[in-house]
């Protein structure tokens, strides 16, 4: 095939040699792909799984693809020649739909000569996609250099943003049509006759909660809400210990309220059965120290990581999750707690927290891990005669209730009535359960040991109210 020069392609001056040095591309492969779809328009369906119009190195080439795709709806038999493509491009240009000067008819004719390679179109389409990925990488490198030289460079924000963009350099290969209902239903029927197992799920650390939920499912967001001092962080540690220590599953605990040292104190206290206050105040006896030493030796290799970075952003979380999932196979993320995260800029706080909620939900789906989000509740329950919290009490955002797959609310009678006959009990209220029944589970709140433990057989379901 005769090589084309700049004059063949453009109505204005264009230094193609300089462009090739700056941004990787393979014009010959692109011409073969375009010539192939002009000769056999039905190839577009197959090649769409490999490339898209944005992969061509110049927008004018992409518009040839668009023209062929549009014309194939009208010309259903045979090839789409350069004249038809030129007429469609000129019509779009006249109507103001084409933002660039289209290729000239002689350029289109030379592209059409590439139709002799139609049998190899898939091979050349892959080359086009690879070069497009290389260009995106080069462009990202330039932006990264500029960001690194900026006066307001912030490593925690910029590096996470660059890493996120890096993930998008290579597009997903599977970009075919979404599955039809007929393809989905067989799997549903198989599930209907297959008893649920806990394979692939993360244990909660509470037997009754495991019985109700089957464990934390991948891709789900769980919101745990409570008023201050009721036990949000302690419950978060229950789940972290169950996943990382008991089950050996890589877990990330992001603590915006407690330091790493405080988290370590509480985990060791819970595992050793030694009062957390004794550890903090340095009042442990020799027997306490022996129990602590044994517990430390037992849990030292647990795959639990604690991040106490202040003002955590969604970008920072994505970076941490991505890094740990690649390096260690991360299985669970716990965030303590939502309202302390640095929210994206928004017109008001409620919208900002809603954006955080949606971002965490998408993070769970993207990395296919359960994400447990601890959240404060507003004072709504204190204004009611019945002090038990409801999902509507979630602070600053109704989106939390909407985005969550499971909403758990914590309640302790002895917070209001120290002499209550239910002192030492914690109600774990599953107020929303997208995949099952709501229920209230009663646990023993051993706050002096920084832990919550089972009171077996104490949960009551509400079968008449299944969360939507």
What does this molecule look like?
The chain is 45% helix and 14% strand. By secondary structure, the chain is α/β, with parallel strands linked by helices. It has a nine-stranded mixed β-sheet, sandwiched between helices. Strand 8 (437-446) and strand 9 form a beta hairpin. The N and C termini lie far apart (61 Å).
Topology, please?
Blueprint: H1 6-9, H2 16-22, H3 27-39, H4 43-47, H5 59-71, H6 82-94, H7 105-112, H8 121-149, H9 155-167, H10 181-192, H11 207-213, E1 221-226, H12 232-246, E2 251-255, H13 260-272, H14 276-281, H15 286-299, E3 304-307, H16 314-328, E4 332-336, H17 349-367, E5 371-376, H18 399-403, E6 406-411, E7 425-433, E8 437-446, E9 451-466
Parallel strand pairs: 1-5, 1-6, 2-3, 2-4, 4-5
Antiparallel strand pairs: 6-7, 7-8, 8-9
Helix pairs in contact: 3-5, 3-8, 5-6, 6-7, 8-9, 9-16, 13-15, 16-17
């Amino acid at each position: 095939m005769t090589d084309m020069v700049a004059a063949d392609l453009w109505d204005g001056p264009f230094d193609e040699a300089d462009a090739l040095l700056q941004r990787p591309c393979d014009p010959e492969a692109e011409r073969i792909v375009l010539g192939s779809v002009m000769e056999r328009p039905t190839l577009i369906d197959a090649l769409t799984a490999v490339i898209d119009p944005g992969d061509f190195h110049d927008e004018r080439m992409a518009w040839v693809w668009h023209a062929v795709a549009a014309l194939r709806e009208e010309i259903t038999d045979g090839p789409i020649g350069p004249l038809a493509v030129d007429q469609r491009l000129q019509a779009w240009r006249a109507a103001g739909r084409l933002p660039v000067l289209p290729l000239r008819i002689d350029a289109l004719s030379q592209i059409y000569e590439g139709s002799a390679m139609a049998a190899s179109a898939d091979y050349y389409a892959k080359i086009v996609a690879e070069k497009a990925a290389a260009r995106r990488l080069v462009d990202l490198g330039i932006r990264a250099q500029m960001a690194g030289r900026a006066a307001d460079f912030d490593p925690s924000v910029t590096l996470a943003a660059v890493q996120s963009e890096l993930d998008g350099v290579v597009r997903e290969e599977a970009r075919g049509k979404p599955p039809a209902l007929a393809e989905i239903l067989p799997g549903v029927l198989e599930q209907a006759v297959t008893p649920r197992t806990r394979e692939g799920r993360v244990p909660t650390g509470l037997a009754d909660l495991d019985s109700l939920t089957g464990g934390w499912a991948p891709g789900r967001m769980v919101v745990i809400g409570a008023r201050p001092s009721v036990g949000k962080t302690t419950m978060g540690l229950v789940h972290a210990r169950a996943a990382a220590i008991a089950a050996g599953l890589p877990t990330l605990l992001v603590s915006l309220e407690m330091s790493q040292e405080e988290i370590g104190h509480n985990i060791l206290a819970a595992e050793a059965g030694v009062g957390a206050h004794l550890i903090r105040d340095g009042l442990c006896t020799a027997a306490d120290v022996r129990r602590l030493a044994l517990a430390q030796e037992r849990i030292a290799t647990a795959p639990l990581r604690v991040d106490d970075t202040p003002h955590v952003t969604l970008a920072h979380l994505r970076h941490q999750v991505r890094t740990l999932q690649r390096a260690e196979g991360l299985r669970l993320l716990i965030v303590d707690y939502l309202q302390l995260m640095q929210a994206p800029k928004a017109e008001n706080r409620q919208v900002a927290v809603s954006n955080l909620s949606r971002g965490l939900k998408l993070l769970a789906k993207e990395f296919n891990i359960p994400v447990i989000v601890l959240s404060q509740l507003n004072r709504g329950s204190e204004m009611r005669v019945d002090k038990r919290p409801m999902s509507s009490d979630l602070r600053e955002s109704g989106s939390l209730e909407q985005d969550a797959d499971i909403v758990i609310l914590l309640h302790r009678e002895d917070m209001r009535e120290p002499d209550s006959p239910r002192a030492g009990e914690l109600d774990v209220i599953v107020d929303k359960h997208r995949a099952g029944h709501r229920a209230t589970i009663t646990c023993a709140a051993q706050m002096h040991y920084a832990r919550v433990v089972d009171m077996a057989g104490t949960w009551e379901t509400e079968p008449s109210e299944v969360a939507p």
